[in-house]
Design a protein that fits this description.
Blueprint (H helix, E strand, L loop, with lengths): L3 E6 L7 H14 L3 E5 L3 H6 L2 E4 L26 H14 L4 E5 L1 H14 L3 E5 L15 H22 L1 E7 L6 H10 L3 E3 L6 H7 L1 H7 L3 E6 L7 H11 L4 E6 L11 H19 L5 E6 L2 E6 H4 L8 H10 L2
Helix pairs in contact: 1-10, 3-4, 5-6
Length: 323
């Protein structure tokens, strides 16, 4: 029987993390399980910096962006001696299971940590990049793409007013799913993402058409695309269409903030609930996810492998709709 668990958030913050924390606390309370919440991710585990959370503490969390527990990327945790220190802290507090809310780096850390702590760890995928295997929508992803679409809709207004070409850079250092889906939703004229290696060539192929037709254009580029980012892409467009008025807009960290969307809140709550249930069932080293609207559990070792390919139907969809 489990009567005490711990939860923490790690890596980049994502809208919906608080909704997940709330679900963990309420589910645990329902089953008479105490919750220790560690602050600043793995740093809190190392320093034994935690608070106890009760239902009253998470009453109004569901709509808030960010994470009330704070987050960090811990260099110390990469060293075995600090992982051992964190394990000793958890043992001293009587923690019997750990819920990690984060992304790729968080789950890689959890894999290494289980060798020291011997505690079961369950992961809730919190990353706006949606770059994990075994889940359709990570915590924060839906909110992030909605933020991008709202921004691009506003940028398009001024683009149309002045017949400008706007290059909009979105987050996605290793994965272009934010760029891809927001491009479809906003009706972008071109999208460049790390997964599509010939997208720059296809962009150049559009230049003659754009010259003839004139008018405004929206190009969305993921920050990790091999083209070099928005400013490099803008330079390419200016060379190909010298008469064009080309502008750059880098959305940056606004994509991480804001109140989570309805879908984001529901998914986050679902993952938090099932994470507690998974610990009660004796599961370990797995990430909770929804695939085709069904709960599934993916081993950390598999979940942390990034999507290497875009689904062919999505690739064709964006090519057809941005013609």
């Amino acid at each position: 029987m489990i009567n005490k668990i711990a939860v923490f958030t790690s890596g980049g913050d994502a809208p919906g993390m608080n909704a997940c924390i709330r679900a963990v606390v309420l589910t645990a309370h329902h089953h008479n399980i105490e919750v220790l919440a560690y602050l600043k991710g793995y740093e809190g585990l190392i320093d034994n910096h935690f608070i106890k959370l009760h239902p009253a503490d998470v009453k109004n969390l569901v709509y808030r962006g960010g994470t009330i527990l704070g987050s960090a990327r811990s260099k110390r945790f990469m060293e075995e001696r600090f992982r051992r220190q964190a394990a000793d802290n958890l043992k001293k507090e009587g923690v019997q299971g750990l819920i990690a809310i984060g992304g790729d780096g968080t789950f890689k850390g959890a894999l290494a940590f289980e060798d020291q702590c011997k505690l079961p760890v369950i992961g809730c995928a919190g990353t706006i990049d949606n770059d994990l295997v075994g889940i359709d929508f990570t915590i924060g992803y839906d909110t992030a793409i909605n933020t991008v679409v709202e921004a691009v809709d506003k940028i398009r207004d001024t683009a149309q007013s002045h017949d400008r070409i706007f290059v909009v850079e979105v987050m996605g250092r290793d994965a272009g799913l934010i760029a891809l889906r927001s491009a479809i939703a906003s009706g972008a004229d071109a999208v460049l993402i790390p997964e599509l290696k010939n997208d720059s060539t296809e962009l150049h192929a559009k230049f003659e058409t754009w010259k003839k037709e004139g008018g405004s254009r929206i190009v969305i580029v993921a920050e990790g695309d091999e083209s070099g980012g928005a400013y490099k892409v803008a330079e390419q467009i200016k060379k190909g269409i010298p008469e064009a008025d080309v502008r750059v807009s880098i959305l940056g960290h606004i994509q991480r903030g804001g109140n989570p969307s309805c879908m984001g809140r529901v998914n986050a709550a679902t993952y938090g609930y099932h994470a507690v249930k998974a610990l009660m069932q004796g599961r370990r080293s797995e990430m909770v996810g929804l695939v085709n609207n069904a709960i599934c559990f993916t081993p950390f070792s598999k979940a942390v492998k990034h999507h290497l390919k875009i689904k062919p139907e999505l690739e064709e969809l964006i090519k057809v709709l941005s013609t």
